[in-house]
């Protein structure tokens, strides 16, 4: 059984993510939280490249968050584990993997822009994962900042009930603090290091504060039967009732508590932390994790947040650096000690835990153990991938892994120096270990090495990482499209004689071939038959003829592409008693079929992709026009809940650069998926 001390320890943990659009101020909020809680002693700035969580050189160069970074701090007797997530759409997979292991989140909005496209995307992702959220309207010191407009955009774009629990004191450059509407007190900050000061509500704001408190009470009473009963009986709601009901509404997702401030000016962070502790869940407040016994056994298993349960954890991030491998874990149940052996339920392999670390972005401190509810990093596992379940070997469980987004952009990647080819292959494999949304492969038809990802910036960052971390200078280009050549008009009775004599045994083969296109209903690319009678071509040579024909079809006469839709019939032939052989007939068939194809008529085919595009309804016309410009053929269009879905067939060659174009034309709100859809005639050049 769990002891009261253990329960209180787990109840004092908050595993939270910071979510927002690019440049809404996520990293600055995280930095101010770390400074305020004493985790760091000097405030860093994004524009100076001195923040704790943006520690990667590329993040500092670009001024954006690229990789989800975990940090830990203490506030009011609670352990707060924070994950600062990227805000750019190209790194949405990092957000998805982080949300899979978080219990709550702080959504940061720009007080001028309100809900921006990626804010909406990460909000929906949090909804899918069932992660409760509170909101922080940041940058109230900016010109044009408007809390009410931000609340309206939350209501209209995200559709929760935004419950503002604060009222700003001052506007834009005069913003100095907030009024706490629950306790009707003023919280102000000066420009120095004195921190937050508490005082009475300014006289000129007393009436507005009272009115907004009333609006808050009425909104809460409408959403909660217990609050409605108290409101009807007493005409007001107590602080205790408001706090308890706001927590319930947050956990259920029926409403979102909204606070405000300016992280850059260090104003509003203390009440934000207090709200995160008060309203967001501890590991004890979330349901027990569920899984199967193993890949082969789907017997349901579950683990509660209890150190006495068998150890259960999910690996959500891997840093496979050349200096060592760091695996980030969310511990759901049990206890992990240094030196323990755990089972990777995904692969069936056992791993030894050499060290357990408390993570502070790129810095770490060693721990003796980790308990249910912790987010830690471990050294030791050599093969665990993001999404792997690590558990006690005696009590296996397989948790559902985060689903990686399908890549939408592909580039060709080659080492500038031939000597670095093997190093490039190793670097690409390591990148795929760290980020499952990156897919390296070698095209079997073109021979090109390609890298696929979620956007052009995603791939740009990956290629730069190869150069910086692995010392491989690369050449990046547009990938080749694998065309096909289809026979549309054949030849009959095509004669080919192969004779070669260079001393000793020679080569002799005589063939007569009918080469015709296959019927459209035929599902095969190549059909070979023989109508030779009387043993004019022995059976073993017939097999060699078929092999030679298949070799010939690998490179067509139009451009060296594979040839499809061909029926070859061997109708006659002749042999030589000494010089005929399987090699001679295979060579004759290869050369003869190539000549026959040149004598016939072929058509160049290009690959098609079935594209499914999801966009806001107001962007539908723009998307349809762009698809038409890319020679796309629209198959279906559906509209539901102000969102449109378009399905179209588009030549694969026209999709290069489409991800960037779609995002720019839909303000980042458009997404698309693709899958192969066969081939169609290419336009004549």
Automatic annotation (TrEMBL):
<dbReference type="Pfam" id="PF03144">
    <property type="entry name" value="GTP_EFTU_D2"/>
</dbReference>
<dbReference type="Pfam" id="PF00679">
    <property type="entry name" value="EFG_C"/>
</dbReference>
<dbReference type="GO" id="GO:0005525">
    <property type="term" value="F:GTP binding"/>
</dbReference>
<dbReference type="InterPro" id="IPR031157">
    <property type="entry name" value="G_TR_CS"/>
</dbReference>
<keyword id="KW-0251">Elongation factor</keyword>
<dbReference type="InterPro" id="IPR027417">
    <property type="entry name" value="P-loop_NTPase"/>
</dbReference>
<dbReference type="Pfam" id="PF00009">
    <property type="entry name" value="GTP_EFTU"/>
</dbReference>
<dbReference type="InterPro" id="IPR004161">
    <property type="entry name" value="EFTu-like_2"/>
</dbReference>
<keyword id="KW-0342">GTP-binding</keyword>
<dbReference type="InterPro" id="IPR014721">
    <property type="entry name" value="Ribsml_uS5_D2-typ_fold_subgr"/>
</dbReference>
<dbReference type="InterPro" id="IPR005225">
    <property type="entry name" value="Small_GTP-bd"/>
</dbReference>
<dbReference type="GO" id="GO:0003924">
    <property type="term" value="F:GTPase activity"/>
</dbReference>
<dbReference type="InterPro" id="IPR004540">
    <property type="entry name" value="Transl_elong_EFG/EF2"/>
</dbReference>
<dbReference type="InterPro" id="IPR047872">
    <property type="entry name" value="EFG_IV"/>
</dbReference>
<feature type="binding site">
    <location>
        <begin position="84"/>
        <end position="88"/>
    </location>
    <ligand>
        <name>GTP</name>
    </ligand>
</feature>
<dbReference type="InterPro" id="IPR035649">
    <property type="entry name" value="EFG_V"/>
</dbReference>
<dbReference type="InterPro" id="IPR041095">
    <property type="entry name" value="EFG_II"/>
</dbReference>
<dbReference type="InterPro" id="IPR020568">
    <property type="entry name" value="Ribosomal_Su5_D2-typ_SF"/>
</dbReference>
<dbReference type="InterPro" id="IPR000640">
    <property type="entry name" value="EFG_V-like"/>
</dbReference>
<dbReference type="GO" id="GO:0003746">
    <property type="term" value="F:translation elongation factor activity"/>
</dbReference>
<dbReference type="InterPro" id="IPR035647">
    <property type="entry name" value="EFG_III/V"/>
</dbReference>
<feature type="domain" description="Tr-type G">
    <location>
        <begin position="11"/>
        <end position="284"/>
    </location>
</feature>
<dbReference type="Pfam" id="PF14492">
    <property type="entry name" value="EFG_III"/>
</dbReference>
<dbReference type="InterPro" id="IPR005517">
    <property type="entry name" value="Transl_elong_EFG/EF2_IV"/>
</dbReference>
<keyword id="KW-0963">Cytoplasm</keyword>
<dbReference type="Pfam" id="PF03764">
    <property type="entry name" value="EFG_IV"/>
</dbReference>
<dbReference type="GO" id="GO:0032790">
    <property type="term" value="P:ribosome disassembly"/>
</dbReference>
<feature type="binding site">
    <location>
        <begin position="20"/>
        <end position="27"/>
    </location>
    <ligand>
        <name>GTP</name>
    </ligand>
</feature>
<protein>
    <recommendedName>
        <fullName>Elongation factor G</fullName>
    </recommendedName>
</protein>
<dbReference type="InterPro" id="IPR009000">
    <property type="entry name" value="Transl_B-barrel_sf"/>
</dbReference>
<dbReference type="InterPro" id="IPR000795">
    <property type="entry name" value="T_Tr_GTP-bd_dom"/>
</dbReference>
<dbReference type="InterPro" id="IPR009022">
    <property type="entry name" value="EFG_III"/>
</dbReference>
<comment type="similarity">
    <text>Belongs to the TRAFAC class translation factor GTPase superfamily. Classic translation factor GTPase family. EF-G/EF-2 subfamily.</text>
</comment>
<dbReference type="GO" id="GO:0005737">
    <property type="term" value="C:cytoplasm"/>
</dbReference>
<keyword id="KW-0648">Protein biosynthesis</keyword>
<feature type="binding site">
    <location>
        <begin position="138"/>
        <end position="141"/>
    </location>
    <ligand>
        <name>GTP</name>
    </ligand>
</feature>
<comment type="function">
    <text>Catalyzes the GTP-dependent ribosomal translocation step during translation elongation. During this step, the ribosome changes from the pre-translocational (PRE) to the post-translocational (POST) state as the newly formed A-site-bound peptidyl-tRNA and P-site-bound deacylated tRNA move to the P and E sites, respectively. Catalyzes the coordinated movement of the two tRNA molecules, the mRNA and conformational changes in the ribosome.</text>
</comment>
<keyword id="KW-0547">Nucleotide-binding</keyword>
